[in-house]
Amino acid sequence: MKKTFGKQQGAERAQLLEGLVVSSHGRHCVVEAAGGARHICHPRGKKGQAVVGDQVQWLLPPEGQGEAGTIEKVLPRKNLFYRQDEIRTKSFAANLDQVLILIAAEPVFSESQLARALIAAEATQIKPIIALNKRDLTEAFASGWQRLEPYRQMRHGQEKHHYEVLPLSLTTDGETDKALLMQYLQGKRTLVLGPSGSGKSTLINLLIPGTNAATNEISQALNSGKHTTTTTSWYWMDETRETALIDSPGFQEFGLRHLQPTDLPKYMPDIGALADQCKFYNCTHLHEPGCAVMAQVEATGSEHCISANRYRIYGDLFDELSQEQRY
Ligand SMILES: Nc1nc2c(ncn2[C@@H]2O[C@H](COP(=O)(O)OP(=O)(O)OP(=O)(O)O)[C@@H](O)[C@H]2O)c(=O)[nH]1
Ligand SMILES: [Zn+2]
Hints:
This protein is of the alpha/beta class. Helix content is 28%, strand content 23%. Strand 2 and strand 3 form a beta hairpin. The chain is globular and about 70 Å long. 33% of the residues are buried. Mean pLDDT is 88; it is low at 1-6 and 225-229. Bound molecules: guanosine-5'-triphosphate and zinc ion. Guanosine-5'-triphosphate (GTP) binds next to helix 6.
């Protein structure tokens, strides 16, 4: 950079810049400036912790005061995808377009975890896409695909198929799967979630070959020496920085304590479809007479049929979210 006079440079340095938070490590964040350069930043003050995906205004450090910049302001978010257990709220990322939930034929996926992730997505109005990987494991895949039937058939209002469910075999049909996935991912910011072993790393390596190791040099520097759990990582898929994948841990313990039990039918389209037709306006759909929801449980042949598993998951979650909060 051309050398400038001290005063002028001071003024330049005091200028608010815009950036994108691409990783977060406790008090530090890595902010990507408009040109693509990445800088370590601290948030100013305590409130307004920035999360990955946040658009922020930030400042370079004053001359001679180290490398770390400061985040002055987190710009308003379009959305924030998070989970909440009894103790704390954990943010996955902000300003997302969609969530790709990657599960696999093996290890056998938990339907309850899948349902939780879908509910969290519905509650924040972020579009979920489900992908079932390892189609090459024929028998296990057939059984997983069968278990996904309620999700493949899920309707919402006039929509015939509320959820997209994609069959994948990332290690054997990589190129075909890549083309299929790109139809959904192009131009979007997609959070990838999934249980351990479902193929998340395989998917990211397939879609962004070679970038994996290099992407997070600063993140690695920040993490070195600490036994940190993996943090959320941001990957651009194109040079124009329009298509992004965000890889985040935490699918396993998906707390929904921020939701009201009575709101569950809003976020479970099969449970909610006939919920306004129950005899009692405040029906919980758990035991009341004249419940239109309970009438649909395993009602084979009905277009509003609710699977026994989905109804059980609804009941379990209703109980869980009705427990008195202990924090
Ligand atoms: N048979 C089969 N194996 C696959 C497929 N995709 C991924 N695998 C394998 O499944 C295992 C887990 O894949 P990863 O990509 O490491 O899974 P991950 O979700 O990143 O797992 P964690 O690192 O534990 O979070 C690896 O041995 C992959 O080679 C597939 O389509 N078919
Ligand atoms: Zn009811």
